[in-house]
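Protein fold
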Amino acid sequence: MISKEELTALREHRYRRIPERRIHTLEEARAFVEEMGFCHFWPIKGIETPNLFHAIAGRVRDVPNAHDDPDLSKSWGWKDDALDKEWWYYGKLLRRRAMFVSLDYLPFFYAGSENFGDLMDYLDEYRDGLLSTEAKSIYEALLEHGPLDTVRLRKESRMSADSAKSRFDRALVELQVGLKVLPIGVAESGAWRYSFVYEIFQRHYPGIPEQARNIGRTAAQQKLVQKYLDNVIGTDRRMVSKVFHALKWTPKELKQAIATLLERGSVQEIVVEGIQETVLVSSTLSDIM
C-alpha cells in the first residue's frame, strides 16, 4: 500500500516542484510540456494538475503581484516568445484556464471536442444552441479579416463598448475551450500596449483535424484520462471529472473511459493510506516505486 505522503512526494518530483528539478530555460520548458502532454500555465486552487509556473519556481508558491518577480517574468516571457513558433497549443482549455498542450496530444483534444474539422462547423453548433451569439460574432470576424488583436477583434465583432467587455471575454474563452480560436502572438495595442492576436484554430493548425479524424472521440477520451493519471500519479474519480468538465463529456462517457482503462490494466483503483476515497493510479506507479 502507498501512503498519501509517498504519493505527494512522487507527484512533486514529476511536476518539478523541487529545487533540483526546476526549469531554467525555454528549451527546458518546452521539454516539460512535451513530457506532460498537457499542463496548466498557472496553479489552480483545488485542482490537481501540473503547471509551468511551479516547475519554473521549483516549488509550490502563490503567483506574485510583482511584475519583476523572476519566476513570473520567465513564465510570462517564455509563453509570449513561443506563441508564434507552433511548439505547442497555448490557450484556455481545461477548467477554462490557460494551459499548454503538446502537438502530440493536441489531436486527441480535438478528437474529444465537438468539432468535425470544417471552418463552417460553428454554424451547426450555433443552430443547435451550443455556441453563443457573441462567440459566433468573434469567430466570423476572424473568418473574414484573418488574425486580429483583441482591440480590433472587439471592434469587428461589434463588442467594443465597455458594457460588452464581459460578454466578449466570456465568448473568447468559450471559443478557446471549443478549440475554435487561439492566441498566436502579441500586439502593442490597448491601454497597456499589450494584447493577444487571435486566429482560427484550423487555419493555424490545419493538420490537426485530419489527425483527429483517425482517432475518434472514445479513444481520445481514454488517451487523455490515461495521460492525466500518468502525470498526477493518482487521484480520485471526482477530481478527474472536475479536470475534464469543460470538454462537455457526459458522465457516462467519462465513466466508460475509466472502466476501459481499468479493464486494460493501465489504471488501477486502490486504497491509499491517509485518503478516504479510493484512488485511480497509473500503472506507471509500479515502475516508479
Observations:
- The CA atoms of residues 131 and 253 lie 21 Å apart.
- The two ends are 11 Å apart (CA to CA).
